[in-house]
Amino acid sequence: MSSTGKATLNDKTGMLSHSNQKIPTTHAYEFGGPFGTLLTTLALPVLVLVLAHWAKKGYLDLSFFSDEDSRTIFCPSCDNLPLLLKCAAGLCAWFLALVILWALLPGLWVEGAPVHGNPNHRLPYKLNGHLTFWVVIGSVVLFRLPLNEYLYRYYENLAFTDISLCFLLAGYLYISSFAKDQHGKPKVLSIMGNSGNAAYDFFMGRELNPRIGRFDWKQFCELRPGLILWVLLNYACAQEQYKVYGKVSGSMVLLNVFHAFYVWDSLHMERAILTTMDITTDGFGFMLVFGDLAWVPFTYNHPAKYLVHHDPNLSAPVLAAIFGLYVLGFYIFRAANSQKDMFRSNPNDPRVAHLTYMPTKRGTRLLTSGWWGMARKINYTGDYLMGLTYSLLCGFDSIVPYYYAVYFCILLVHRSIRDDVLCQDKYGKDWDEYKRQVPYRFIPGIV
C-alpha cells in the first residue's frame, strides 16, 4: 500500500490494495461477457413464465398471442394491480418470517472459509436452516394449510412478482456494493463481478458477502426462501390434484418425497455450502438472487405442476425402479460430498485416513482415491441421477417435464467447466498432474 493511501495494482494477483483491503478485479468474462449476461438477465425471467405455462398446458404451446390465456404469460393479471401487490406482500412476508426464524431459533455459529484466501479473515455464519425447515413443514401440517388455494391458484402471478422482487433486491445489492462498510472501509468484492461494466457486474454480483450486521444475504438465500418454497409449491400441487381428481398419484407422492428429502438433506448439511463456489467465490448479484429465489422454486417445481393434470399413472414396478435410481443417485451424491468434507476437516479421521492424495504447492491435498479417485465431479453424477428421476416420474407422453433433465445436465456440465478453470488458476501445474491421475470428470472409464 502506498503511503498516500492511493490504490495500487498488484500485477501478480490482479488485486487492488486500498488500506488493508484487497479489491479484486475481474480479469476474464464469463457467460458471454456483458452482452451475454444482459441477454441472460432478460431471457431467464421470460423462460420461467413460459415453463409455467407449458407445465399447465402439458405441451409446448408456441402460440403465445393466439388466445387470452397465452397473452397473459409475460404479465399475469397486469390489469389487476391489487392482486400483484398482494402477491408481493405475501412473498415479502414469507421472506421476513424466515429472517425472524433465523434470528430467534437456536443455531450453531461457525466460521466460513478464508475470504480471498486470507486465513485471518473468516466470516461467522449461523446454522439453523434444518430447524427452520421443520418449523415451517410442521406448521403447514399442524394447521392443515390449504396451500393450493394460494400457491397453486396464483402460481403465475407469484412467479411474476417474485421475479420483479429479484430485480429490486439485485439492484439494491449492486448499488450498496459501492458504499463503505460499517468500519468506513470499501466492501469486500468478488473477483467475478468487479469488471467495471454495470450490466455484467449487476448479473455476477460485485460484493462477495453482503451483510446487515451478522445477517449474510447470500448464505441465507442460498438454502432457505427458495428451497423451502419449492417444497411448499409441490405440496400445493398435490393438494390441487387431490381436489380435482380425489386422489394423489404415485408419481406425485414420490416427487414430493424426493424433493422434500433433497431440501431436507441440503439444510441438514447446511455447513457444507460454506466451502462451495457460490459462497467463497461468486458475488451476490442477479445470477444468484434470481437463481435462489425465483428459478429454483418456480422451475424445479415444474414436474409437479405438470403432474396435476397430466399424470401418466405409472405402474408400481416402474415407480419402484425410479425410486431405486433415486436412491443410487443420492448415495453417490451424499457419500462423495461427505467424504470430501470429512477429509477437508480432519484428514486423520479413520474413515478417510486410508485415502491417497496428491500434495500441492499451495499446501493443500487433492484426493486421488475413494470417490474422488473415480472422477473429479462424481458428486455431480449422483446429483444428476436424482434430477433425472423427477422427469421420469412424469412418463413419456410429453417432452415438457424433461426440461429439468436437459437443463440440469447443461447446468452441471457448465459448472464443472467453471470449477476446472478456477482450479487451474488456483493450482497451476499441480492441477494438470491431478487431471492426469484422475482423468474422468463424471463417470469412471467413460466421461
Automatic annotation (TrEMBL):
UniProt keyword annotations, A-Z: Lipid biosynthesis, Lipid metabolism, Membrane, NADP, Oxidoreductase, Steroid biosynthesis, Steroid metabolism, Sterol biosynthesis, Sterol metabolism, Transmembrane, Transmembrane helix
EC number: 1.3.1.70
InterPro entries xref list: ERG24_DHCR-like, Sterol_reductase_CS
Superkingdom in the source lineage: Eukaryota
Localisation per UniProt entry: Membrane
Keyword Manganese applies: no
GO process annotations (BP): sterol biosynthetic process
Transmembrane spans: 35-55, 83-105, 125-145, 157-175, 248-267, 279-298, 318-336, 384-404
Predominant localisation class: membrane
Protein name per Swiss-Prot or TrEMBL: Delta(14)-sterol reductase
Family: Belongs to the ERG4/ERG24 family.
Originating species: Nitzschia inconspicua
Pathway involvement of the protein, from the record: Steroid biosynthesis
Top-level enzyme category: oxidoreductase
Pfam families for this protein: ERG4_ERG24
Gene Ontology MF term list: Delta14-sterol reductase activity
Topology of the protein relative to the lipid bilayer: Multi-pass membrane protein
GO cellular component, as recorded: endoplasmic reticulum membrane
